[in-house]
Amino acid sequence: MSSLILTYKHNFKKAPIVSLNGEPVLLFNQQQHTLLEVLETKKVNVFSECRNGFCGACKTKVNKGSVRYLTKPLIELKQDECLPCCCVPDTNLDLDLTTDEPSNLYVQHNKSVVFLD
Ligand code: FES
Predict the structure, then answer these.
(1) pLDDT number for residue 104
(2) How far is the CA of 92 from the centre of ligand 1 (A)?
(3) Using an 8 Å Cβ cutoff, are 66 and 58 in contact?
(4) What is the distance between the alpha carbons of residues 71 and 4, in angstroms, rounded to a whole number?
(5) pLDDT value of residue 45
(6) Taking every annotated instance into account, which residue ranges of this chain make up the domain 2Fe-2S ferredoxin-type (predicted)?
(7) CATH number of this structure's domain 2-115, picked from the four choices 3.40.50.620, 3.40.50.11030, 3.90.650.10, 3.10.20.30
(8) Which atom of ligand 1 is found nearest the CA of 75?
(9) Which positions of the chain have pLDDT values less than 70?
(10) Ligand 1 site, residue 83, Cβ cutoff 6 A
(11) Distance (Å, whole) CA 99 – CA 114
């Protein structure tokens, strides 16, 4: 019986919650999509170009949590940065995206402006 419980706990990990500067925006339960694709379905438009980990255009600061890469990034990243185009959350994740006026405007860390709806 205890081995069944261990197997269950090992195989069923909770879906990570993705937050923007502390504000939860989605439950990441679509493992076949990248973080970038899932953010875009929630109308969070992160600036991107290659969408394959080559250019660094989507580089985003991670406030808290960790990611797992589906393809290895070809650019150097700091410990607290990720490339949403080629990763998925490995834990609950808080990204450095800040709100600005109007309330549907998000500004990506040092880069792009993102409009929600
Ligand atoms: S869009 Fe080029 S590295 Fe993510």
Answers:
(1) 45
(2) 22
(3) no
(4) 33
(5) 78
(6) 16-103
(7) 3.10.20.30
(8) 3
(9) 1-12, 97-117
(10) yes
(11) 9
